[in-house]
Amino acid sequence: MINTRFVLGIEYNGFGFSGWQTQAQRRCVQHCLELALAKIANHPISVQCAGRTDTGVHALEQIVHFESGAQRPLEAWILGGNSHLPEDIKIIWAKPALADFHARFSAIARFYRYVIFNRATKSALYHQQTTWQGTHLDAEKMHEAAQALIGHHDFSSFRAAGCQSKSPCRTLYFINVYREHEYVYVELSANAFLHHMVRNIVGVLMDIGTAKKTPDWTVELLALNDRSKAGVTAPPNGLFLAGVFYPAHYGIAAHPIFAKLPKHAARFD
What pLDDT is recorded for position 25? Predict the structure, then answer.
């Protein structure tokens, strides 16, 4: 039996999950997806993702790949897979992949979106997918402060204490902060992210947005390389893995959300 490699785009609401990676006695996205695909393939399936998400973190488009010798039309992986998935996970597309494609190691950039609900009272409708901030945020000052983070830096001040990455250095391609009515969005892309890096950046920017700190604090923190000097880690429920980018020859189009971004410098080099 000859295996074919497939790539899928997955959407999920992370509120009810203990993150992406399978863990014993916990509800995890990977485990649910593998069980559903195995029912279509009639054999065990192991999936590899572009980036593991933590407890409570969502995905507009997580990219995964797997291999199977089962002869199934693409629609079977999508429609059949979805029929075996819970309502908070859905396969949005499927296609054959090149033999050398790897969801994680072939990626050249990841794009995250963080959503802050910014009004005096919490939302009854969107509390699972946003982080609430009751104090008014100055999105323009947050954006100004965030621009110092663009480029290749040591992000030690923005990584979790238990981060296991060998290097704290990453290249941030762009970061935009803007307001739409009661929502403040932080959107950023990098070659890769450290553990809790996005949430730690947002925590710092929120302190700047509420005038607890001045916009030059980001410059200071980059120079300090000390996580203990930075702000709190923003909650997970406002964070979305919004897109993963690959070399063009893999034929994986960017999620439509990317085309709707405000001014950015999406150069992945």
Answer: 87
Read off the pLDDT of residues 188-225 as tens digits, 9 standing for 90 and up: 999 999 999 999 999 999 999 999 999 999 999 999 99
- pLDDT of amino acid 2: 78
Rounded CA separation 102/171 (Å): 21
User: Out of 54, 88, 138, 154, which one is annotated catalytic?
Assistant: 54
The pair of three-digit structure tokens given for residue 198, joined into one six-digit string = 């996005």
DSSP letters, 91-156, are EEEEEE--TT--TTTT--EEEEEEEEE-SSS--SSSTTTSEE--SPP-HHHHHHHHGGG-EEEE-G
pLDDT one-digit tens code per residue, 224-260: 998 988 889 999 999 999 999 999 999 888 777 666 5
Q: Which two tokens stand for residue 117?
A: 């609900």
Q: Which domains does the chain have, with CATH numbers?
A: 4-96 (3.30.70.580), 109-246 (3.30.70.660)
Q: DSSP readout, 19-45?
A: -SS--TTS--HHHHHHHHHHHHHTS--
- Contact assessment for residue 108 and residue 102, using Cβ atoms and an 8 Å cutoff: no
- Residues paired with residue 80 on neighbouring β-strands, in sequence order: none
| Residue 4 host element (H or E) | strand 4-12
Helix axes 217-224, 197-209, angle to 10 degrees: 140
| Low-confidence residues of the chain: pLDDT under 50 | 262-269
Q: Is 54 a catalytic residue?
A: yes
Alpha-carbon distance of 113 to 58, in angstroms, equals: 10
Tokens of 49: 């993702």
The helix, strand and coil proportions of the chain, stated in percent and rounded to the nearest 5, come to 30, 25, 45
